[in-house]
């Protein structure tokens, strides 16, 4: 399957809610625009963006005399692509050796799976990758990461279950320096005894990386399950405060009709989406391309 087909397939549930509607467009009428606004909101694009997008489209349709599904689709595509372009660079910045990727997010969103996919991508590019099992809380978390490491041909640093995650990260950094690792990817817990604990722990890990690797290229990737909708925005705000977030990974787009959350997080938090997850396999992580994403959503 080509890359674009993968995105298209991944977004098929979200797309279904638009396509019939767009094809039914015969010229500016209020009912059409009300329905379009509703379907954008249902796709979790965020009410504000949905309303402004549809207002703009309504004006254009009137002034330019847009007619038919293809014309309205092209106009909508322009607005949505522009909306995604605002949050900044969607590529990872990994310029130093080692570079660090800290992967954070609530439990079950797909952090460990995303790390496995990233590891496979980097080793495939010939990079030396080290995975650091910073989730010492959940039973078998390190084993799960170990399986991905093995599959990807990456190395692994882990401690006993229940040990201090800061110490694992410290050791991971030391190993990365000693072994000439290109990319060190740190897994973290999604849940501790309580939320304050989790946020404190992430701040601590973050400080250790700053201290031990000053000036290194560093990405803090927040993983969000695309299906959690607007709740994802709340999570993104909280994690931004404790660790800083340089990019988002939107997972499980393949299983949701709410792919519009990509727009909401971009707009409301100014954090770019950098990857999307469209399945459980190693090659089901795609670089986020705003043009292709919107094309796949509407075509
Ligand atoms: N369909 C689909 N499933 C995914 C995707 N990403 C992850 N998953 C699945 O989501 C489940 C949870 O993934 P994990 O990677 O264990 O999530 P986590 O964030 O590490 O969870 P904790 O370690 O408990 O915090 C697994 O069954 C994954 O296979 C995706 O893009 N699409
Ligand atoms: Mg995990």
Describe the structure in your own words:
With 299 residues, this protein is α/β, with parallel strands linked by helices. The chain is 53% helix and 14% strand. The chain has an eight-stranded mixed sheet, with helices on both faces. Helix 5 packs antiparallel against helix 12, helix 8 runs parallel beside helix 9 and helix 9 packs across helix 10. The radius of gyration is 21 Å and the shape is elongated. The two termini are 17 Å apart. The model has no long low-confidence stretch (mean pLDDT 90).
Describe, in short, the structure shown.
The chain is α/β, with parallel strands linked by helices and 299 residues long. Helix content is 53%, strand content 14%.
Architecture blueprint of SSEs:
Blueprint: H1 3-10, H2 12-23, H3 30-42, H4 47-64, H5 69-85, E1 99-104, H6 111-124, E2 129-134, H7 141-152, E3 155-157, H8 165-179, E4 183-188, H9 195-212, E5 218-225, H10 231-243, E6 247-251, H11 261-269, E7 273-277, E8 285-287, H12 290-298
Parallel strand pairs: 1-4, 1-5, 2-3, 2-4, 5-6, 6-7
Antiparallel strand pairs: 7-8
Helix pairs in contact: 1-12, 2-3, 3-4, 4-5, 5-12, 6-7, 8-9, 9-10, 10-11
Bound molecules: guanosine-5'-triphosphate and magnesium ion.
Magnesium ion binds at residues 111-112, 135, 141, 187.
